[in-house]
Amino acid sequence: MNEQPALETRALCKSFGALTIARDIDFRLPVGARHALIGPNGAGKTTFIDLVTGRLKPSSGQILLAGTDVTALPAEKRVKGGIGRTFQINTLFNGLGVLENVLLAVGERRGVAGNMLRRARTYRAVVDESRALLERLGLGADGRAPSASCPMAASASSKSLSPSPSIPRCCCLTSRRRAYPRRKAASSSTSSRLCRGTSRC
Fold first, then answer.
1. For residue range 85-118, what is the model confidence (pLDDT) as tens digits?
2. How many helices and strands (H and E) does the chain possess?
3. DSSP string, 165-198
4. Which of 151 and 31 is assigned the larger pLDDT?
5. Domains of the chain: which residue ranges?
6. For residue range 34-56, what is the model confidence (pLDDT) as tens digits?
7. Chain Cα centroid distance, residue 67
């Protein structure tokens, strides 16, 4: 029996008036797999990510997360369902530490972020999960460091929005050409990577 893919799109299309940006995209992301979307500017890579994560509404087609149709769900519900994303321009709280950024992300997923004006230790489960996540990513020693000084902080915050490890998850990471060493950048102006939330990318 075939395993349910973590993410799937069926005949996904997006048009802006008479201009078709995405046409009949059939895509399957197996659980635990990593895929890269590479192409020139204007090829539709970001549009596809926007459709998957809910920033854009498709003109037609379906988006399924672990077999569940999420096409009509808004972005925030897809995040809580297991789709994470980082952006080319990270929107971390640079005045906070790495752990504090992850605490906010975990708190948001657990539905308590709006009440976290009290001391963090009041939410021990949130703190413990956040610390455990940083340890898994090899960032345990960087928890108190400013998030601006840690390149993996955005990835950690994105991954912390995923649900429990037993549920298939998808994490979409995008980066610009300048994020790559010169020898790698020569082959592509942009690269986007789709991977399972528990994978290190």
1. 776 666 778 788 888 888 888 887 777 877 766 6
2. 6, 8
3. TTS--EEEEEEEGGGS-HHHHTT-SEEEEEE-TT
4. 31
5. 1-82+169-201, 93-161
6. 888 888 888 888 899 999 999 99
7. 18
